[in-house]
Amino acid sequence: MMAAPAKLRLDDVSMSFKTPSGVFQALAPVSLAIPQGRFVSLIGPSGCGKSTLFNVIAGLLEPSGGRVVIDGADATGTIGRVGYMLQKDLLLPWRTVLDNVILGMEIQGLPLQAARDRALPLLRRYGLAGFEHLYPSALSGGMRQRAALLRTLMFDTDVILLDEPFGALDAQTKLQMQEWLLQLWSDFGKTVIFVTHDVEEAIYLSDEINVMATRPGRIVESIPVPIARPRPRGVTLTPEFIAIKERCLELLTAGHHTALGEAA
């Protein structure tokens, strides 16, 4: 059976920066192919280039080498081809929840009322009923992240980059948001690339995990997660889940020791 064509493909993407002490290679050549509708996570130590890679995919940074391909077309250095959400929700404090959610549609030229009409049913369907006309300051951290995620999804791109969106949430809210995100992913059919430092979160959410190492940043192993969906919380105690977790931790530990040795 032929493999599904890649929605997003990275062809030997590398990134170097000039510094007073010489050239710093943030990313060694990275190649990755992600089919439509897949949920893929990146994990790795701080400084391994995850955010740099996201900025290249989003077109915010021009790579030193290689290219970004979306739907078979070169998208290197092109903004607006992916949705991008950071850990901070970046909701505009002077806009209501509804008007924050429609921001991307406004930027794309959709009339204000049409954008609101499109967004309102989704706010009500995905747990923000009754919050539409409140301002971000009145929302909990979890509710703010819901609004920010809906805003990112409604930017109407097929590829969504999520950079540690739940990293600042408490443990219970984080678990709730994971379930909520999986529901959105299932309903919208987006291709998601997810950065996290939480190995269990990566395994629970993902179809595939890419483990990165540092100095320079690179993918050292791609690990499939062949666990059937939907996944109950008890799946974290299964031998299959534990084996994937142990392999991820083994790779992360090896990368950490390498980085410490080079730093010394």
Provide a descriptive summary of the structure in words.
The protein has 264 residues and is α/β, with parallel strands linked by helices. It has a domain of 154 residues: P-loop containing nucleotide triphosphate hydrolases (Rossmann fold, 3-Layer(aba) Sandwich), CATH 3.40.50. The protein is built from 8 helices and 10 strands. The strands form 2 sheets. A 6-stranded mixed beta sheet has the order 6-7-8-3-9-10, sandwiched between helices. The protein has a 4-stranded antiparallel beta sheet with strand order 2-1-4-5, with helices on one face. A hairpin with a 4-residue loop joins strand 9 and strand 10. Helix 5 packs parallel to helix 6 and helix 7 packs across helix 8. It starts with 5 loop residues before the first strand and ends with a helix. The C terminus is likely disordered.
